[in-house]
């Protein structure tokens, strides 16, 4: 089939580059911290079963333990109460796991203001330069926050008033959910919403509006700086956890060079 041969030829020559947008998954991967009385996710851990020893002389393997929403992960619509009747993570159609992606870069603004919020005017400015948001595309929101992902405290950036990480205004989240045909939103932070979004109206508007509209979320992405504003294709592959609300995912971008 010509299209697939062209893709393989592009990969061989470097005309198509694969950029890994996935954070390494380990016991030190940062995780969300909700205040009391809310329950929190466990982090990622490995427990050795055997390692070429009496427990299994020729093989090494581990059990893993993780929350669904740990590290680079995919939020399904049923993660939020507004999407409770929506798809679970195993029901996301495979056809939607390969999709175009566009990147909006507000890393300079977020470096100056960790509470920076994406607004509708930011989308309009992007569209004036690059054209309409493509139908069925991931909107990847570059904040520069991935450089902090090696350290939980730096990544969550919390003080006595709570976490301070960039996000999206409630008005912009509603607009993205109701007035665009994006597939979902991808961020570099611990979740798709701002650190201060617990106090927004509604609280956690990205989750509330986007998942409520049947759209998806991708979080803790890395290397968005290596993507063009338009033209990349993202492969986002969550585990098909039956009834699950999300899953750690390997997220790759195919980028034309
Ligand atoms: Mn999540």
Describe this structure in words.
With 257 residues, this protein is of the alpha/beta class. It has a single domain (17-24, 68-256), classed as Putative cyclase (Glucose Oxidase, domain 1), CATH 3.50.30.50. Helices cover 20% and strands 29% of the residues. The chain contains 6 helices and 14 strands. The protein has helices at 2-13, 107-112, 120-130, 152-156, 170-179, 205-212, and strands at residues 16-20, 45-53, 56-65, 73-75, 98-105, 117-118, 138-142, 158-159, 162-163, 167-168, 184-187, 216-219, 232-238, 246-256. The strands form 4 sheets. It has a 7-stranded mixed β-barrel with strand order 4-12-11-7-5-13-14. Strands 2-3 form a two-stranded antiparallel sheet. Helix 5 (170-179) runs parallel beside helix 6 (205-212). The longest helix has 12 residues, at 2-13. It is globular and about 65 Å long. The relative contact order is 0.22. The model has no long low-confidence stretch (mean pLDDT 97). The structure holds manganese (II) ion (MN). Manganese (II) ion binds at residues 69, 73, 75, 191, 219, 246.
């Amino acid at each position: 089939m010509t299209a697939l041969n062209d893709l393989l030829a592009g990969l061989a020559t470097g005309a198509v580059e694969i950029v890994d947008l996935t954070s390494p998954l380990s016991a030190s991967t940062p995780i969300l911290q909700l205040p009391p009385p809310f329950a929190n996710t466990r982090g990622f851990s490995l427990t050795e079963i055997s390692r070429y020893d009496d427990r299994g002389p020729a093989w090494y393997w581990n059990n893993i333990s993780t929350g669904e929403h740990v590290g680079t992960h995919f939020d399904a619509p049923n993660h939020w109460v507004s999407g409770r009747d929506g798809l679970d993570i195993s029901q996301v159609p495979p056809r939607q796991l390969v999709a175009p992606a566009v990147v909006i870069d507000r890393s300079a603004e977020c470096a100056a203001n960790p509470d920076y919020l994406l607004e509708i005017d930011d989308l309009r400015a992007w569209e004036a330069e690059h054209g309409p948001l493509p139908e069925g595309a991931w909107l990847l929101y570059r904040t520069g926050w991935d450089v902090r992902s090696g350290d939980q405290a730096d990544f969550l950036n919390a003080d006595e008033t709570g976490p301070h990480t960039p996000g999206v205004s409630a008005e912009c989240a509603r607009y993205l959910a109701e007035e665009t045909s994006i597939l979902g939103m991808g961020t570099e932070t611990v979740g798709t919403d701002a650190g201060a979004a617990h106090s927004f109206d509604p609280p956690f508007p990205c989750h509330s509006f986007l998942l409520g509209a049947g759209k998806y979320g991708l979080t803790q992405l890395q290397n968005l700086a290596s993507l063009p504003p338009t033209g990349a294709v993202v492969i986002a592959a969550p585990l098909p956890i039956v009834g699950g609300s999300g899953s750690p995912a390997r997220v790759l971008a195919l980028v034309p060079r």
